[in-house]
Each structure stands twice: as C-alpha cells, then as structure tokens.
Write a structure and sequence with these properties.
- The complex is a heterodimer of chains A (105) and B (540).
- With 105 residues, chain A is mostly helical.
- Chain A has one domain (2-96): Dissimilatory Siroheme-sulfite Reductase, Chain: A, domain 1 (2-Layer Sandwich), CATH 3.30.1420.
- Chain A contains 5 helices and 2 strands; from the N terminus they run E-E-H-H-H-H-H.
- Chain A has helices at 27-37, 44-60, 66-73, 77-83, 87-96, and strands at 2-6, 9-13.
- In chain A, strands 1-2 form a two-stranded antiparallel sheet.
- In chain A, helix 1 packs antiparallel against helix 5 and helix 2 (44-60) crosses helix 5.
- Chain A is globular, with a radius of gyration of 13 Å.
- With 540 residues, chain B is mostly helical.
- Chain B has 2 domains: 2-30 and 50-194, no CATH class; 202-539, no CATH class.
- In chain B, helix 16 (332-344) links the parallel strand 3 (324-327) and strand 4.
- The longest helix of chain B is centred in the middle third of the chain and has 19 residues, at 217-235.
- The chains are: A mainly alpha (105), B mainly alpha (540).
- Chains A and B meet through helix 3 of A and helix 11, helix 12, helix 13 and helix 22 of B.
Chain lengths: 105, 540
C-alpha cells in the first residue's frame, strides 16, 4: 500500500495504483490518475464510461463485463482503449475507483 | 506490470547453463515480473488464515512471527504423518533428472531451481535435515540443509513458479507427483501468512458470494440475462435459464470466468444455446447463484481450503434435490472432483449415477463423483445423433486444441473435446504429439498464477505452448486455439498476442453454439461474437 497526496486529498493505493476502497473515491482521484494514464483532457466520453462503471458497481458490487460496458456506453472496445490507453480494467476501472477483478479472468 | 515485459526478441535469449556455484550456495534473487503480490491482511483474515500483514517480497524483512521456524517444522511433521504421499515423494526421488527439462517454467526461464527435481529439492533438503537420520548426521553430504529465513524466501519464490500442471510427473519413473509437493510447500507457507493475493482474494470471494469474482446473485442473473438478449439478437430464439430451482434434475456448475470474462462469455452463450435446444428433449437443468463457481482456488492454498470450497457444490446439489451435476469447461475443478472429492466430501450418496435424459447413456465413470464433464455429455449427444449441426458456420476457423492440464492429466479427458470440435468444425489440426494429450504444455498461468504483475513469468512459462501453436499456425494456417478451462480462456489470448499474433482463443461450447441449429431460429448472419459468418459479406 502506498500513500499519495494530490490537490489536498490523501489517497491509499495498492501495488498497481488502484484506490484502496471505492468509498474513498472523489473527483480529485480522477484528476490524479488522468496524469498517470497520459490522458490530456477528460471529455464527456471519459465521464460517460466512468459514470457507467460506477453506477453498475454501486448496484452489483463488481465491475461490468466489458461487453456490458461496451453496450451501455455505445462505445466499441477499440474506442474505450482510445479513451483509456491502459484499457477498461487498468485504465477506466482504476479511474472510477473500482477494484480489480480476480479469479479466472 | 504489463509494460515491463521484455520484447520477444529479448525473451527468447534463455540461458539454460547453471551458475558456477552449487544450488545450495546460490542465493535466491527475487525479481519483479516473476512473483505475484503477497496476500493482503483483510483477505487472509476473512479466510481465517493466520499472520496476515503488510509485507513485500523485495524487502529483507518479511515480518515473520518470532516462532516461525517451530510453526513450520511442526507443520511439516503433521503433514508427514498425515500424507503418505508426501513422505514417499520426499524419500524416493533418486534425482535422475528425467523431469528436469519437462517443465515449461524451466524451459522458459532457464532457472535451474525451476527444474521440478530441484524445486522439490528445496523442500526435500529440509526434510532430510529434520526428519531423516542420515540428514541429521551427515548434513550437506547427503543433500540436507538447515531451514533459514533465506530458504523460506526461496520456497515462496519457487513454489509460486509451479503451476501444479503435472507434466513432469508423466516422465517420472517413480510417478512422483510434483504438484503434491508444491501443494504441501504452499500449505506450509500459508501457515506463516505467505500466500499470494491472486489466490487468496478469489478464495475469499468464493466464500462471500459463491464465486471467485465476487458476483452476487442478482448480478449473476444480470450477466446471464445479457447473454440471453445477445443470443436472441443473433439466433432469434429466446433462451430461458433458471436459477436455484428446486427439483431440477441436473445442476450446472461452471467457472465464474465464463459469465464475466471474454472470450469465456461466448462459451457461456454456447451452454445456454445447447441447454435450450435440449429442453424439448427432456433436459431439465438449473444454474445456481450460490454454487456459482466451478474453480477452486482453495486447491492452491491448502487441503482444508479446497475441501471447504468443494463442499459448496455438493451442498447445493443436496439442497436443490437434483440427481446429478453437469460441470462446465473448467480446468482444476476436474482434478479436485476426480482425484480428491470422493474421499474429501464424498461419497455423494444423495445423488444418483448420472444418466443422460436424452440418450439414456449411463456415465458409470462418474458413478462416485456424480458429476459429468460437459464435453463428455455433448460428445454422447453427437454420437447418438441428437444434435443438428451446421459445421460451415465455423468455416472461418482453423482450429487446434490445447489440452487443459487438469482435465487431461487429472481425469483423462482427451478424446471427447476433440470429437466435439471435429463434429462442429470442418478444419482441425493437432499440435505436435509431444505437446498435447498427456504431454500437454501448461498455459503458463495455472494454479492461481494468472495475475497481472507476473506477466513475464507467464509469457516465459507459456512459451512452449505458444511455440506449438506457432508451428500449426505457420504450417496449417491455424487461427483458433480451443480449450476447456477458464484460466486458459483468460490467459491464452494475451499469450497468443505476445508469441503468435493472429490466433484467437475459444471454449469448445462456443463452437458448439455456433454450429447448433436451434428449432425456429432465424437465418444467422453472425457468429456468437457478432462477427460476420463465412460467406455473409459476399451475399451483401
């Protein structure tokens, strides 16, 4: 676990830079991860993905499968990679404050 | 992390020459990209496993409990008494080396401590010192050594560089099951809180929600509903799975990866299509949101944890009063079922010897476990002419089959998947003989080593498998690698992208779902992945 301070907020992260708990997520976290991800400006499309991920997580306690994310946002997987270079898991889920999925995945 | 994986041109420079120092005098160097992150305290607490703490494999101090050596040696003593196999495997190895070059991790890393014989020797040397007279008296001369914190680090590093695939055991003249040694090694490490998180977290999730991914019942249904909609879009037929239905004849259990992660999700659609097809023929099956996991990451932790997780599916079968269990395309689940379940949680006398309601075939091979592998079940349907199939719908695929280690070596499932594939696909080519069936090469990520941070190890360990795929890719134009394991479906796509770009990965029942002609279906224009069927573009 590593601590980081950004724009007056303190965050605790795991080894891969995921936030320790969804409860501790706040918009500043997105700004912090944005820099690491090499995203210059957050567009409405970025926020659409983040919002869909968070809504699904609040309802289901898990990230949506990629196919669901793609269907609900209307973005093809390729476009999600364009938005989040590290992909839907390591990029988008990390920004949205969701934990990494584990198991046979 | 993935971005630190060396390029293939760097990766193939493997030095198999051992260092000039003897193995006992060569210190362990723990390297990023090879190890997986340690298990976290809340996870171990949740599993009632001891000594959860924050520690790093790269630190000198692993924060071991002060009496760690006593705990460890007592743990060894208990297991020597309890498992005859353990004592036997410690005693009988003559270090002939037949196993040495059979391990995919040794082939891919060149690290001598990944020779199965030497990996086992890491533990065996301590066994000799503490539990044999010769070792106590003559020490190093007879291959005995003192247990130290450095040795413990070596154990941790290398017992999590064995995927318990058992390829080496096929070549051992004594039949030493090296996976059993790794299992004991990991069990001992767990006494000191030294698990990896990629194993501990799924095991904890499995207790909490019934599956490794932590999918709750309503989410599980939500995911299957998504497949139902998608299946309808593609076939025009609405399938209707049921959940936790008491009185159903058959309980279906599959890895949770199949309902969450691509390309396993297409295999899940294949199951749904097959089940729907069979419904009118008298097939009566239910899914469970409680026994919603075929896999068993407890198996990678300890015998107790394996037993606790395995018990779940039988408890659910009993609660729902089903007659028998149909198991999906899972890997290690089948070794647990076939080789441990019966004496661990069985016999499952509340269930019946499985009989196919459609063909009347009695699966006497599953008379004690009461659990049938879905490729056996489907192969029997095909053999009896019960399925209407259009092979041409898989004509864009040139398929080969990767025998998943545990179904192949752990239960002898070799011919059924091939029989099914060849009845639903027109083009099929085998990889070289020494890389398939009993001699199959591991995906490189089995036994809970399918994390993200150890990707270099995975790609190194997966190299022999990828190499065989490359052979048929170049020789026959193979573009699809079929398998019957959810870890395979998760890890082979990045492995192929790394070593053999242009080869995809599929479950066997995705291929079945493509070929199976549902009564009342519309003219299909795409396969289950939504990609145009062969010939469709020309028609347009």
């Amino acid at each position: 676990m590593a601590d980081v301070e950004f724009n007056g907020k303190k965050f605790v992260m795991d080894e891969d830079g995921f936030i320790d708990s969804f409860e501790n997520w706040c918009p500043e976290w997105v700004q912090y991860v944005k820099g690491l991800e090499g995203i210059e400006e957050l567009s409405e499309e970025h926020w659409k993905v983040i919002n869909v991920l968070q809504d699904y997580y609040k309802k289901n306690g898990i990230a949506p499968m990629v196919r669901v994310l793609s269907k609900v946002t209307g973005f093809k997987l390729k476009h999600i990679y364009e938005l989040f270079p590290s992909g839907p898991g390591k990029g988008a889920c990390k920004m949205a404050g969701l934990p990494k999925p584990t198991g046979c995945v | 992390m993935a971005d630190e994986v060396p390029k293939t041109s760097e990766m193939v420079k493997i030095d198999h020459a051992p260092p000039s120092t003897g193995w006992m005098d060569t210190p362990v160097v723990i390297r990023k990209g090879i190890y997986s992150y340690p298990a976290k305290k809340p996870t171990l607490d949740y599993l009632s496993m001891p000594f959860g703490r924050e520690w790093s494999p790269l630190d000198a101090d692993w924060k071991l409990p002060p009496n760690w050596l006593d705990i460890l040696l007592e743990g060894m003593r208990e297991r020597i008494d309890r498992f005859r196999s353990f004592r036997l495997f410690m005693d009988i190895c003559v270090r002939c080396g037949a196993c040495a070059d059979k391990c995919h991790y040794f082939i891919g890393t060149g690290d001598p401590k990944n020779m199965p014989v030497l990996r086992a020797e890491l533990l065996r040397s301590v066994y000799r010192k503490e539990f044999t007279l010769a070792g106590k008296l003559m020490g190093k001369m007879v291959g005995a050594r003192q247990m130290t914190a450095e040795v413990l680090k070596e154990w941790w590093y290398y017992f999590f560089q064995c995927s318990e695939c058992r390829r080496c055991s096929v070549f051992c003249p004594y039949g030493i099951d090296t996976a059993e040694i790794t299992i004991i090694g990991r069990e001992l490490l767990n006494l000191l809180g030294l698990n990896i998180d990629w194993i501990a977290q799924p095991a904890a999730n499995c207790f909490r929600t019934g599956n490794h991914l932590g999918i709750q019942p309503h989410a599980f249904k939500d995911m299957l509903d998504f497949f139902v909609d998608d299946t309808e879009n593609i076939t025009g037929v609405r399938v209707n799975p049921t959940y936790n239905r008491k009185g159903a004849e058959i309980l279906f259990v599959t890895p949770s990866g199949d309902v969450f992660a691509d390309p396993g999700t297409y295999t899940a659609m294949g199951y749904l299509i097959l089940f729907h097809y069979l419904e009118s023929l008298g097939f009566d099956v239910t899914w469970s949101t409680y026994a919603s996991e075929g896999g068993n990451f407890g198996f990678f932790t300890s015998h107790e944890m394996m037993k606790r997780l395995n018990a779940k599916m039988y408890a659910e079968a009993k609660r729902l009063k089903v007659k028998w269990i149909l198991g999906g395309e899972c890997g290690h689940m089948w070794r647990v079922i076939h080789q441990y379940m019966d004496t661990m949680n069985g016999p499952a006398d509340h269930l019946e010897t499985p009989v196919s309601p459609i063909t009347g075939t009695r699966f006497t091979n599953a008379a004690t476990t009461k659990m049938v592998h879905i490729t056996e079940f489907t192969a029997d349907l095909i053999r009896n002419g019960k399925l209407k199939l259009d092979k041409s719908r898989n004509d864009n695929l040139n398929v080969t089959f990767h025998d998943s280690c545990n179904p192949a070596r752990g239960m002898g499932l070799l011919d059924e998947p091939r029989y099914v594939i060849q009845n639903v696909c027109n083009t099929f080519h085998e990889m070289p003989e020494s890389t398939i069936r009993e001699q199959t090469f591991c995906c490189g990520s089995g036994s809970g080593l399918n994390a993200g941070e150890n990707l270099e190890l995975r790609f190194r360990g997966g190299m022999p498998r990828a190499n065989a795929v490359k052979h048929v890719h170049e020789k026959h134009g193979v573009n699809m690698l079929a398998c019957v394991c959810a870890i395979d479906r998760a890890v082979l796509p990045p492995l192929m992208d790394y070593w053999v770009p242009g080869v995809g990965v599929t479950g066997v029942h995705e291929l079945v779902g493509n070929a199976l002609i549902l009564p009342g279906e519309k003219k299909r224009t795409t396969d289950l992945r939504g990609e145009d069927l062969p010939g469709v573009e020309e028609e347009d």
